[in-house]
């Protein structure tokens, strides 16, 4: 499909294609905005969530670490109390008495609620056993004896090399714990030995043999070795040899940690969980439940903790490490809630929603606007009457064709059409009929052109066609022009009327005749002008001679202007005679142009130009004034006939000008005849009728000139107040050969008589013609037989008119 085709289709389809356009396309910007907005919102929210995670994790880990340090410090505080007791034992020269122990220990309990019991386990050898038992009883511990723990109960300890019995204790003296030998419980013995050999605080997760009321597991047993004052503890052997006993403390671990946290104002945002130290007995993390948990809702098993965000550390108690796991407290400030990420997501979604709504509305508005624009464009490029493209569209397409020509070298033609006789239809049948005719013309033209040709109405009765490239552009365009001309000569049926018109066509071919809009239009117009002046109903292809003609015409126009200004115009007079008597009755004034180089130019060669250019107005005034002035000097029985152009009739000042010419010359109005052609009557009928009545009232005679050449509608004769009919010379020419001409003239004469008008025969050249005309009853005769138009100086007013063959020759 050619560009032109497409364009034409575009133009024709301007009201339809968009309806089929999918909404998806219309709302694409909004959908893109939704997509991009969602993407950015989610990505932004995810980024913020990650950032929140990171920040929370850092804050949480800092808090957890701080908590762990605080716990460790608290635990150190507890241990340091026991170490102080050891110092007491190692520093005194004498034995620490029970009451001293009790006093010192009581102080240790102050502000240390996690401390359950403290005991002193002296190293007792076999020989000292009885001595110790007696001393304890003496101190008030009734029935004190060194006991061993066997199958869940106490029994008197069997003989052994050494014992580590509970000798002093913070328990009431009635407690069964007194005398219990720790060395008889394997795990406790192991703790004691570790403490002894390493000279370190050793610890053990343990269970009390005498649980306190409501007591909870687990408890922690801490053993601190006490060596004899002043003895060496360098080597394990030294330590074993010099061991004096153990200071033992039992802690309630949960209570202890809780107390530390309360006194230090621990952060509730972190849940601390303390798990027992790893031992060989622990097989799975699942089974590992916390010894201490700061929040009831915290995950219990280590596996649960490991699965979530947590911090890992340890709590050192003596030589054992309890596992510390911290998690953010559920619902606490350190639990990642993704508030900011949520806010970012919501704001992003809201912005996306707003933006997409805005874009949707904007798209809809712009669609409406574009539809309105298209409609405006469509209207701006369409001729409302015929529905064809108008001048604007035609010119645009012409430009495009010229561009294509320069790019692709495709030739094309433009055909300018001007309807012949359309004006008559418009004037005689009214504008409604004219419009209907134009519509029918448009339909016929459409049927004559191809789909890819551009057919436009340029205005009035002017149409134009751009014909796309053919094999032989010249042949194609003449073939189209002939087709169009034939189509338009066929009669048109209008309501109540059958109308026959035709068309004149001018053709210009690109690139032969030019390749720009102005040139091509000008040349097609010139060719059209030629068609019109060649008698219409034909077509002409531009040739260079036309431009030369135009040039000459332009020159002529300039010259004519000068001629009017420089009085190069002359008025010649041709007599007309009374047919019966042969007496001269007057003269017709006929203008001539005495050109300085071209000589005398007849009116046929410049009157049409003067009419086109409006120069006819001053020219006509000149002729009228001169004719009146000349005629005023003639014998009083001679009239002067002056031609008035239809263009002059449109002049508002015409009546005043005629009056002024008469007044200035002194010529009586009765001696002035005004000759007008039928074309004057075709338009402005009412105004012209009134104008003619005014002239008649002055006494001026009115003659209908060139009768028979135009429409010769007899209705004009009755409708307008003519005094005279002048039969055109073309009828006279045929008079002697064609009986039909005689019949027509006879009919005109009869009609004129009936309407009380006289008849003048123009162009009488021979005596035969004259005789025939006389016989037919014409009143006046004019023609070379009676004299050619001549300057006034050459007219002999005294001499009688002698018809002569020489004149006519
Ligand atoms: N072959 C032939 N021709 C004859 C004969 N007798 C007269 N003629 C010519 O016929 C024309 C008659 O004038 P028209 O029909 O008014 O036709 C006039 C008239 O329509 C127009 N015209 C002349 N002068 C004026 C003027 O001053 N104003 C206007 N508006 N038109 C004028 O120019 C037309 C031509 O004028 P002219 O060339 O002077 O031509 C004159 C005249 O010379 C004859 O026996 N044989």
UniProtKB/TrEMBL annotation:
Residues 410-544 form the GGDEF domain. It catalyses: 3',3'-c-di-GMP + H2O = 5'-phosphoguanylyl(3'->5')guanosine + H(+). Its main location: membrane. The chain crosses the membrane at residues 26-49, 341-361. Residues 92-275 form the CHASE domain. One of its GO terms (biological process) is cellular response to nitric oxide. It is found in: Membrane. The keyword Transmembrane applies. This is GGDEF domain-containing protein. InterPro entries: Biofilm_reg_signaling (IPR052155), CHASE_dom (IPR006189), CHASE_sf (IPR042240), EAL_dom (IPR001633), EAL_sf (IPR035919), GGDEF_dom (IPR000160), Nucleotide_cyclase (IPR029787), Rev_trsase/Diguanyl_cyclase (IPR043128). One of its GO terms (cellular component) is membrane. Keywords: Membrane, Transmembrane, Transmembrane helix. Gene3D superfamilies: 3.30.70.270, CHASE domain (3.30.450.350), EAL domain (3.20.20.450). SMART domains: CHASE, EAL, GGDEF. It comes from Bradyrhizobium amphicarpaeae.
